Amino acid sequence: MLNSGNSKAAHHLLAQYEGTWKMIRAAIKNIPEEKWTISEGEWYYAYTLYHIIETMDFYSREDHEGMVWGKRAGYKWDDVTDVKEEILHLISRELVTSYLSEMEEKLSGFLSTIVEDAFFEKDGFYWFESVYQKFIYLLRHTQHHLGELAVTLRKFETEPIKWV
User: Fold this and answer.
1) Residue pair 95/72 in contact by the 8 Å Cβ criterion
2) Residue 127: closest CA among 38, 39, 63, 54
3) Residue ranges per structural domain of the chain
4) Is residue 70 classed as helix, strand or coil in its secondary structure?
5) pLDDT for res 4
């Protein structure tokens, strides 16, 4: 239930994120272990999951400065020349699951407490007109990549990601 002064828009958006997080958890759970690091060209299942969650980390900040991409997994994106050789062995199911839990808590806390006026103001992500627009973009980004993961699960004839 919303506390007095909280944003109804944020409350409704949080409900959509909660469904999305369940779908990410299914994507983590449903891929067989031997397929965790599967790739098609430059696309990697495990890395895509990590990328989804790391992007949540990025856009849940107040501005775009200071993010070290890859830090949570123990690499620095700017130094990577070969994802398969340098990164995939660092991205475990456990890392992705715990990072997702952390982002769920962070985003839930933020979206549960932001007041309506602040939700429609700009923050340090100058390319968005408002915090609200930034969070809609993040939801779209996540769903785009979940679609890629869903196609891969269907290819392997494993349990699909169910729409939540």
Assistant:
1) yes
2) 63
3) 9-155
4) coil
5) 40
CA angle, 144 then 145 then 150, to 5°? 100
For 84-131, how does the pLDDT look when each residue is reduced to its tens digit (9 = 90+)?
A: 999 999 999 999 999 999 999 999 999 999 998 999 999 999 999 999
d(CA 160, CA 66): 36
Tokens coding 47: 């890395």
Cα torsion through 4, 130, 54, 16, rounded to 10: 50
pTM over 0.90: yes
Q: Which pair of tokens denotes residue 36?
A: 């965790």
Q: What is the CATH number of domain 9-155?
A: 1.20.120.450
Counting every residue written for the chain, the total comes to 164
Give 1's contacts (C-beta < 8 A, 6+ positions apart).
Answer: none
Going by DSSP bridges, is the β-strand pair 43-44/39-40 parallel, antiparallel, or unpaired?
A: antiparallel
